[in-house]
Amino acid sequence: MLNNIGLPGLLLIAVVVLVLFGRGKISSLMGEVGKGITSFKKGINEGQAELDQDTADAAKDVTPEDEKDKV
């Protein structure tokens, strides 16, 4: 169904959406979408940094278990 939509069809859909919602509502909606994407990327980066930190912390402690008990 969506394979047959060309440029004229997309323009018609854009005009209908613009008429129904108005320019202000669409711009605020796109702003919220942008904030959501930014927050998602920030969360992904923070999660990756946390995993990297955990890996680095685990790599620091290379003392065998037998040696830990003696200290």
TrEMBL record:
<dbReference type="GO" id="GO:0043953">
    <property type="term" value="P:protein transport by the Tat complex"/>
</dbReference>
<keyword id="KW-0813">Transport</keyword>
<comment type="function">
    <text>Part of the twin-arginine translocation (Tat) system that transports large folded proteins containing a characteristic twin-arginine motif in their signal peptide across membranes. TatA could form the protein-conducting channel of the Tat system.</text>
</comment>
<keyword id="KW-0653">Protein transport</keyword>
<dbReference type="InterPro" id="IPR006312">
    <property type="entry name" value="TatA/E"/>
</dbReference>
<feature type="transmembrane region" description="Helical">
    <location>
        <begin position="6"/>
        <end position="22"/>
    </location>
</feature>
<feature type="region of interest" description="Disordered">
    <location>
        <begin position="51"/>
        <end position="71"/>
    </location>
</feature>
<keyword id="KW-0812">Transmembrane</keyword>
<comment type="similarity">
    <text>Belongs to the TatA/E family.</text>
</comment>
<keyword id="KW-1133">Transmembrane helix</keyword>
<dbReference type="GO" id="GO:0008320">
    <property type="term" value="F:protein transmembrane transporter activity"/>
</dbReference>
<keyword id="KW-0811">Translocation</keyword>
<dbReference type="InterPro" id="IPR003369">
    <property type="entry name" value="TatA/B/E"/>
</dbReference>
<dbReference type="Pfam" id="PF02416">
    <property type="entry name" value="TatA_B_E"/>
</dbReference>
<protein>
    <recommendedName>
        <fullName>Sec-independent protein translocase protein TatA</fullName>
    </recommendedName>
</protein>
<feature type="compositionally biased region" description="Basic and acidic residues">
    <location>
        <begin position="57"/>
        <end position="71"/>
    </location>
</feature>
<keyword id="KW-0472">Membrane</keyword>
<keyword id="KW-1003">Cell membrane</keyword>
<dbReference type="GO" id="GO:0033281">
    <property type="term" value="C:TAT protein transport complex"/>
</dbReference>
<comment type="subunit">
    <text>The Tat system comprises two distinct complexes: a TatABC complex, containing multiple copies of TatA, TatB and TatC subunits, and a separate TatA complex, containing only TatA subunits. Substrates initially bind to the TatABC complex, which probably triggers association of the separate TatA complex to form the active translocon.</text>
</comment>
